[in-house]
Amino acid sequence: MKWRKAPHGSVAVTQPRPRSKDPDLTSASTLVLCMLGHKKDQIAKSIDENIAVDLNTFIGVIAGIRRDDIPPAGIRKIINEDKEILIEKVTKKRTHHTLWKRKESEREIMSKRIVIGIAGASGVIYGIRILSLLKETDYETHLILSEAAEINLRIETNYSIDDVKSMADFCYENSDVSASLASGSFLTQGMIVAPCTIKSLSGIANSYTTNLIVRAADVTLKEKRKLVLMIRETPLHKGHLRLMTMAADMGAHILPPVPSFYHRPKTIDDIINQTVGKIFDYLGIEHNLFTRWGNKHASVIT
Predict the structure, then answer these.
(1) Percentage of residues in the chain with pLDDT exceeding 90?
(2) pTM here?
(3) For labeling, which of 53, 124, 210, 217 is most exposed (least CB within 10 Å)?
């Protein structure tokens, strides 16, 4: 095997710093490592310092030339040309890194942002319970409260409208279809409509976005995010079932408030928490809202 002899070169590492006489201007401190007897340090040091000062960032350069007969003018030409090329490449790399970090930050925000729509069906307590539980976490909640939901709130609970809104990080009018939630560029982990009326279901299934709950749900579907629809209606005729099938075909998760009893609920809160826990399971939110099925439950079945 023939080994190709590598050219000897120099390594320069430069840290930009304010100038001693004028702190508004940038200077640099450079460390150069060079093989004895070889003069590549001039190229490495000059290029490294120029790039570090121009970009105001820590830079390392390795320089190597295969010819030993290059005159001083040739060395200066190499320095000037390579400096421009390297500045362009480093700038592109930094821009790419900055965009990548921004995307990572946006993904992190998205993974902790939940939209909650409370429509006008009976069972507004489900939406309230979701809000109150998420308030104790680091999830960012965005609430849309419909006009009919506000009426049911007064009928079914002792909560005031302000009480419920105070549980959310951000609140929106259902009529405000120009809100940030109406755009797919507003990143979220997903959306819950609890409870969800048949009217809201119909709007979502047919993409008839006349209000913010329906529009935000439509955005969630088109962006392939998780959408939970807690349909609160009974009995159901074929038109209701058809709408649920249409929504499910588009990606919605149909989760009506149908309680389980294997965990031996003792209060209405236990029943509410079990259904809310199923929603949290789907969205990947950790909780201990109910006792899960296990061997101790299976053992009682004969």
Answers:
(1) 58
(2) 0.66
(3) 210
